[in-house]
Amino acid sequence: MGAISPSTGRTLPDRYIEGTCPICGYDSARGDQCDNCGNQLDPIDLVNPRSKINGETPRFVETEHFFLDLPAFAQALGKWLDTREGWRPNVLRFSKNLLDDLQPRAITRDLEWGVPIPLEGWRDRSDKRIYVWFDAVIGYLSASIEWARRSGDPEAWRRWWEADGAGKDARGYYFMGKDNIVFHSVIWPSLLLGYSGEGDRGGEPGDLGRLNLPTEVVSSEFLTMEGRKFSSSRQVVIYVRDFLDRYDADALRYFIAVAGPESQDTDFTWAEFLRRNNDELVAGWGNLVNRSVSMAAKNFGAIPPAGPLTDEDRALLETAKAGFAQVGGLIEKHRQKQAISEAMRVVGEANKYLSDQAPWKMKDDPERMGTVLHVALQAVSDCNTLLTPFLPHSAQRVHELLGGTGVHAPMPSIVEVEDLDGGPSYPILTGDYTVGARWESVPIEAGRSLATPKPVFRKLDPSIVDEELARLDPRE
Ligand SMILES: [Zn+2]
How far apart are CA 411 and CA 250, in angstroms? Predict the structure, then answer.
């Protein structure tokens, strides 16, 4: 049964229908999903459904669709989830709970826009399309195949996907917010299992062979803002473009990494954003970069050579070097919060070293002053690499302040490309990640010239808090 608007006679897309969740009773569940319990829904499942466009009750009419037989995969999904190790406990628990109420789900919709159904007799129909949440996840595989064709090695996708061949040791990590878990721990694995000939209905693998299921679904929890749920209609919202007009990308990246909803719901407040930016990013990391580079530039004009090392010098160099295994290990386990905190702990050690050694008091012992600054700059260089995954924009600038050239932190870009099969051109997101920093301590070069730095991070005025709160709800 498909939803139609009685007043226009047109199909009502799922997201334009709201009603009460039949599973948990939440009264603002959407036609495709309940944000409260996370279950996937069809519009006809809703109790008291209503159109979000004009409030009318949709009419349900019989229509013809293809369905994915999810219950046929319940057992195989359960077995697969039982073998998962190292997932965030909340994600695994949530995924297993979804298996308790699996229903067959329509994989197509009555729409004119979208991907046509690639089957004889359906391909040319203008009124039926693949449901976006199915073609979105299939896109992980199809985009890999397209990428391989563009790379000049059309078989290269197999290194990530082929379960019995080139990709048997590949690991696949999927990053998302928790409202997308169902599509990645139930829908996409079911499609992959079915394609691989598994599940209660059995069968033979498709032409591509058996395919890899996700190694891990990495999901965060919800972020609220000033204690309220984000809602564009209620103006509880920060648009990324507006944010970037006023603040630096790394200031937001820092906040999300260090205080984001990694394993529990957390709250974004402008006061906390200000504090994190000014007290940690500017006064901690920015200050370390600034005072060590300026002092070396002013007194030596270049990275000074190191003379004999003291125990304190060696201790800081060891701490910085050890950061790579520690921070790297935490990133590998998706403990981003702990990882950036560990990197910032090394920053704190370096700041303490500078304060204890006080090189500004060593005007009459330039060799020792040079050694201290050399050690501090080596720590800056190492900390910069440790922070690069979190703060790529400022990492590039710090790399240049240290006299480095070329790309330190490669960035993705959007490139317009020709369609490989002769269709219209379209944009793809791509990047060259073969260049840039490696995850290791690289010795800095004495004699490399340094310029007096400009501050890498901007200190924010406390008045932004009230300004932003006023913007948040202009009616109050
Ligand atoms: Zn619900």
Answer: 13
Q: Where are the alpha helices (DSSP H) in 310-401?
A: 311-332, 336-357, 366-387, 392-401
pLDDT, tens digit (0-9, with 9 covering 90-100), for 236-258: 888 889 999 999 999 999 999 99
| SS3 label, residue 174 | strand
Residue 309 CA to ligand 1 center (angstroms) comes to: 63
* pLDDT, the chain, mean: 93
239: three-class secondary structure by DSSP: coil
- Residue 328 makes CB contacts below 8 A (sequence gap 6+) with 439
SS3 state of residue 271: helix
Q: Are strands 105-106 and 108-110 parallel, antiparallel or unpaired?
A: unpaired
Q: Are 130 and 117 in contact (CB under 8 A)?
A: yes
Say how many Å lie between the first and final Cα of the chain, rounded.
Answer: 43
Domains and CATH numbers, the chain: 2-61 (2.170.220.10), 71-219 (3.40.50.620), 240-464 (1.10.730.10)
Give 27 Cα–ligand 1 centroid separation in angstroms: 8
Residue 37 phi, psi (nearest 5): -105, -10
Half-sphere CA count of 431, side-chain side, radius 13 A? 11
Percent of the chain with pLDDT over 90: 81
Q: What is the pLDDT of residues 129-176, one digit of tens each?
A: 999 889 999 999 999 999 999 999 999 999 999 999 999 999 999 999
Return the closest-CA partner of residue 46 out of 94, 3, 105: 3
Kindly give the distance from the C-alpha atom of residue 385 to the centroid of ligand 1, in angstroms, as a whole number: 43
**Separation of CA 188 and ligand 1 centre (Å):** 21
Instruction: Tell me, in angstroms, the distance from the centre of ligand 1 to residue 130's CA.
Output: 25
pLDDT in tens, 295-306: 999 999 999 999
pLDDT band at 475 (very low <50, low <70, confident <90, very high): low
In whole angstroms, how far apart are CA 225 and each of 139, 462, 474?
A: 32, 18, 15
Q: What confidence category does residue 32 fall into, taking pLDDT thresholds of 50, 70 and 90?
A: confident
CB 305 within 8 A of CB 446: yes
Please give the distance, rounded to the nearest whole angstrom, from the Cα atom of residue 32 to the centre of ligand 1: 11
Give the amino acid at 211. L
- Residue 107 CA to residue 151 CA, distance in Å, equals 31
Please state the rounded mean pLDDT for residues 106-118: 91
Report the C-alpha gap between 141 and 344 in whole angstroms: 37
pTM over 0.85: yes
Going from the Cα of 45 to the center of ligand 1, the distance in angstroms, rounded, reads 11
Q: Are 265 and 223 in contact (CB under 8 A)?
A: yes
| CA 35 to centroid of ligand 1, rounded, Å | 7
- Segment 1-25 mean pLDDT: 89
